[in-house]
Amino acid sequence: MNDQSLARAAVLRPPAAGPNPVLRLSGIGKSFPGVRALQDVELALYPGQVTALIGENGAGKSTLVKILTGIYQPDAGRIELDGAPVRFPTALSATQAGVTAIHQETVLFDDLTVVENIFLGHQPRNRFGLLDWGRMTREAKAILDRIGARIDPHVTLRELGIASKHLVAIARALSVEARVVVMDEPTAALSQTEIEELYELVDRLKADGKAILFISHKFDEIFRIADRYTVFRDGQMVEAGLIADVTEDHLVERMVGRSVDTIFPKRHAAIGPEVLAVEGYSHPTEFEDISFTLRRGEILGFYGLVGAGRSEFMQALFGVTKPSRGTVRIGRQAVAIRSPAEAIGHGIVYVPEDRGKQGAIRPLPIVQNVTLPSLGRTSRKGFLRMAEEFALARRYTERLDLRASALDQPVGNLSGGNQQKVVIAKWLATQPRVIILDEPTKGIDVGSKAAVHEFMSELAAEGLSVIMVSSEIPEILGMSDRVIVMREGRLAAEFPREGLTPEMLVRAAAGYGRAA
Amino acid sequence: MSLAEGTRPRHIPDRLSGRMGHALRSWELLLLLVGVAIFVANSLLSPYFLSPWNLSDATFNFTEKAMIAFAVAMLIIAGEIDLSVAAIIALASTLMGLALQHGAGTPVLVGVGLLTGLLCGLVNGTLVTRLGLPSIVATIGTMSLYRGISYIVLGDEAFNGYPASFALFGQGYAWWVISWELVIFAVLAVAFGVLLHRTNFGRQVYVIGNNDTAAAFSGVRVQRVKMILFLLTGLMSGVAAVCLTSRLGSTRPSIAQGWELEIVTMVVLGGVSILGGSGSILGVVLAALVMGMVTFGLGLLNVPGIVMSVFIGALLIGVIAIPRLIRLARTGRAA
Questions:
Q1: pTM (2 decimals)?
Q2: ipTM score for this prediction
Q3: Which interval of the chain is the signal sequence (chain B) (predicted)?
Q4: Chain centroid to CA A56: how far?
Q5: Is B334 on the interface with A (CB under 8 A)?
Q6: Is A372 helix (H, G, I), strand (E, B) or coil?
Q7: Cβ-Cβ contacts under 8 Å, A367 against chain B
Q8: Domain B52-296+307-315, what architecture?
Q9: Which domains, ranges and CATH numbers included, belong to chain A?
Q10: What is the least distance, in Å, from the CA of B10 to any CA of chain A?
Q11: Which of A482, A446, A451 is closest to A467 using CA atoms?
């Protein structure tokens, strides 16, 4: 296709004059059951340069990081270090080859000290084979000084803030003589001054000749520190080049640049009166001043970057966590939601993003999963009536076209998509007024995805109000009547369906072009 | 998509056929076979075993422990544990003795025993559900606490002289060789079986044990269910305290020493997963019968108590290890 040939042209563009890449990936592919995460990916990292990796949520960036750091093995393709092919069968082997990563959520140990964290897995030993604490402390201090971190090496990580933890992670990367440093959204949790310090540190790493892969959604920082860029979309590399040659607009376009080509069976639903009004919902740390209304038969999309506070807000609305401020009205009645049981009582239900942990009870049969919040209706005076349970479970699972061999089969034996159908059936069986779907099609196969979309439309047409949290732009554009964008815990924008483009969403979510 | 084709959605059967095969491989059946084997072995080894009165005496080896084991089984299925149960017996029995000193009659004695159990359960439940302490730690603490109070009150002494009417619970017979304790055991077995397997509450216990986060996200009031289970466990310890005190006719602070581990053994032998989420009351009943018969059979053969605990330990490990060994041999590698 046109896109593809464009991508090829970009790949084939000769690299600007400069050194050879330290690390080069070619033809990398990786599939998970039902999902092709990466396909034929190319990436080159050069010494003393920062390469920005850009893409939507789910474009395959994290999978690539895991392949680089030896956590996943690619199904296809090769990795070359200084021109020689290498394999990273374990995380340790990647570290030993000089590839380290600083993850979005630091993967350090809260109860160990700074020194222990820095040297974990490669502690120097003395001649008796025991840990050489003196040397470790000296080296840790030296490294921390080098990156300008004023951290006592003997405190435990629990006592440090997130910015200091990042510094420890960076110190750890330096302690193994890393040649390639992967930074996965390192600024996501940092304040402005901390971000400035991080930039300086990145400059210092560049001066040291490290090759840096910098993953970020924020265009201002990409243009501040990156030398090169690589754009991913749907698990494929679509373009790579020098930052100096491109504009922000161009990158945004390459990131989302596709028509909404998947079929979204959005039907026309009559939008009725207001059913839910949230006013000034706030949480001490996760979100601030969220207000919106939801009407009968409406599908309201919530878009934002990962970490924008959408799930946290939805869980507060569902009563899992407590808001510090704010009111909820259902219909005309003001209500207080202090627990999921109360939310369910008011007709608000929540299909969580983390299906395995919060949604499905995998070892238990389908029927017991579906009837759990409706036991009051299927039972008589607290005693179970299995026939009623099977009837209820059958009504909703068959409507969702569940593929299962029997209703007493454990949910854990089903595919991800069918597990999701069980969770949705569970909530529909309570006959809710508002259903919140948090990343409803994340990690499920295409067929189930279409079924979930079709069903969502059907429900709205029947008068249910749907809140859909999604990080997939086509899904948001295809399904929503209205879209709210959240950024850093706050409402960033609200758009009607008509005239909404992917670019508008990406800009609102990243905080770029706010003035426009 | 089949919906798009306009066809009726496909039918999903309630259950797959072949339930019989499932039942044949069940833990309960294995326990039943072990029980029968021990019964036969006992009757071959000792000429006294098959006498009705001897068998009746044998039931006292497990009835009191089993009453508590039913409640503890539900706690373990819900992912918690209570190790203070034997200490609750000691405290309840001690407080009953104190009440006796102040001239309490049988109804008051029973009330004191049950109430003490409930209060101890309330303390355990509060520590776990309100303060968020891990139940294994909290109840090891209260285990020392409850029995410690008993030792402070009694020292080397003992309470004696319980009224004749009080002897009914531990020494009385309902009919022929059927003791009242056996009747209480049977009634409680049925009650707990119904509670765990036939009510919404029991369903919530399984759900919590399998995934307490998803349970909370489904509107189950997880902490409340756990609190009720701790109260129930305390209450059952109170019931057992009444029966045991009545049977012994006296209270010493060392009463029911070490029972907590025998009770947990009974529960685990009964097929309840120590990790929570699965198990049945029928399994615990069978485990109680098996353990009672082993202890009694060995007693008839004049095997000393210390050797008996070796047998119980070996039995527990054996019954749990054998199915795993079989699976291991079948698949040819570690599970």
A1: 0.78
A2: 0.87
A3: none
A4: 10
A5: no
A6: helix
A7: 14
A8: Orthogonal Bundle (1.10)
A9: 2-98+178-256 (3.40.50.300), 111-176 (no CATH), 270-347+432-516 (3.40.50.300), 356-431 (no CATH)
A10: 7
A11: A482
